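Quiz preparation item.
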């Protein structure tokens, strides 16, 4: 066991954990941030997507020692409200297992588009969300949700 200090959703946190413990487990079990879901546990489905220093990652693949001093944003974090609202309005939220990862990935995609001066479009949305699997939908409403968030300017 060792101490790991990092920022989660704007709050500096310290946890005592095995350095190789998955970030996903630390978030859910130690910090009670249960919005991030485990789908496959192998980095294939995207349900556990969080942002580390602004980059989307699968938290099931990240040992907590790798986030020392980093900024972690989960679905409970600030800046995701407009994306969450778009998913609710457009029906992109289904059973809820994949939805948090899709929301975080959409936020990361919109941030990347803004940073790189790219215009968010359907092809971009499909590429950005391709690593997030959903068993409930044909992705039409998910893509519509991401595009609605983009149309709103992805406001933070």
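Solution:
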């Amino acid at each position: 066991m060792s101490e790991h200090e990092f920022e989660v959703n704007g709050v500096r946190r310290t946890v005592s954990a095995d350095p190789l413990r998955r970030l996903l487990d630390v978030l859910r079990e130690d910090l009670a941030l249960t919005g991030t879901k485990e789908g496959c546990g192998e980095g294939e489905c995207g349900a556990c997507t969080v942002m580390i220093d602004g980059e989307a990652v699968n938290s099931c693949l990240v040992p907590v020692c790798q986030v020392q001093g980093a900024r972690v944003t989960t679905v409970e974090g600030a800046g995701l409200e407009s994306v969450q609202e778009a998913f609710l309005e457009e029906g992109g939220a289904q059973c809820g297992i994949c939805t948090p990862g899709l929301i975080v990935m959409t936020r990361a995609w919109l941030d990347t588009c803004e940073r790189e001066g790219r215009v968010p479009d359907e092809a971009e949305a499909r590429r950005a969300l391709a690593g997030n699997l959903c068993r409930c939908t044909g992705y039409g409403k998910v893509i519509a949700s991401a595009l609605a968030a983009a149309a709103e300017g992805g406001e933070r």
